[in-house]
């Protein structure tokens, strides 16, 4: 391996309008999820769904206080992934060279941004749907939840990996 592989340059790459828009959308959804949880807190039973199986059916019940875990995890992931977005020189690349480094950094940053915001939206949806189940307004996540989530999440990864490979 050459020296370039180990000492990747640090480039100042500003957020694109798409990244800013995705961050704003996820932030609004996150805030709305917190407001919703606070608004319905008094109506929630002591026991709420705490885990779902692959078919979206409840397989464990727990304290309503466990609902605080979902936004906490979402916030932690958002902060951590935002930090990683700012350091594309730490990311792992295939075929990185001086001719494609800026594209590869931008691609990697956008991948992280998209996945970060998908994670936040996932946790907001899980919290909302769990509240709906606890209040008797829904029965489960639904059988399509997991396949749709996996298709979106892995679809994003595949899109950005293919994009990276095409720009050797």
From TrEMBL:
<feature type="transmembrane region" description="Helical">
    <location>
        <begin position="140"/>
        <end position="162"/>
    </location>
</feature>
<feature type="transmembrane region" description="Helical">
    <location>
        <begin position="105"/>
        <end position="128"/>
    </location>
</feature>
<dbReference type="Pfam" id="PF07853">
    <property type="entry name" value="DUF1648"/>
</dbReference>
<feature type="domain" description="DUF1648">
    <location>
        <begin position="30"/>
        <end position="74"/>
    </location>
</feature>
<dbReference type="InterPro" id="IPR012867">
    <property type="entry name" value="DUF1648"/>
</dbReference>
<protein>
    <recommendedName>
        <fullName>DUF1648 domain-containing protein</fullName>
    </recommendedName>
</protein>
<keyword id="KW-0812">Transmembrane</keyword>
<feature type="transmembrane region" description="Helical">
    <location>
        <begin position="21"/>
        <end position="44"/>
    </location>
</feature>
<feature type="transmembrane region" description="Helical">
    <location>
        <begin position="64"/>
        <end position="84"/>
    </location>
</feature>
<keyword id="KW-1133">Transmembrane helix</keyword>
<keyword id="KW-0472">Membrane</keyword>
């Amino acid at each position: 391996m050459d020296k370039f592989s180990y000492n990747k340059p640090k480039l100042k790459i500003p957020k694109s309008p798409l990244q800013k828009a995705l961050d704003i959308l996820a932030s609004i959804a996150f805030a709305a999820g917190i407001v919703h949880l606070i608004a319905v807190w008094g109506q929630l039973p002591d026991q709420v769904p705490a885990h779902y199986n692959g078919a979206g059916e409840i397989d464990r019940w727990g304290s309503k206080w466990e609902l605080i875990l979902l936004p906490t995890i979402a916030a932690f992931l958002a902060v951590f992934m935002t930090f990683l977005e700012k350091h594309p020189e730490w990311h792992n690349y295939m075929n990185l060279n001086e001719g494609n480094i800026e594209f590869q950094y931008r691609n990697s940053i956008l991948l992280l941004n998209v996945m970060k915001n998908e994670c936040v939206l996932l946790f907001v949806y899980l919290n909302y749907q769990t509240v709906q189940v606890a209040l008797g307004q829904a029965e489960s996540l639904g059988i399509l939840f997991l396949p749709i989530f996996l298709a979106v999440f892995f679809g994003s990864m595949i899109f950005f990996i293919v994009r990276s490979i095409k720009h050797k």
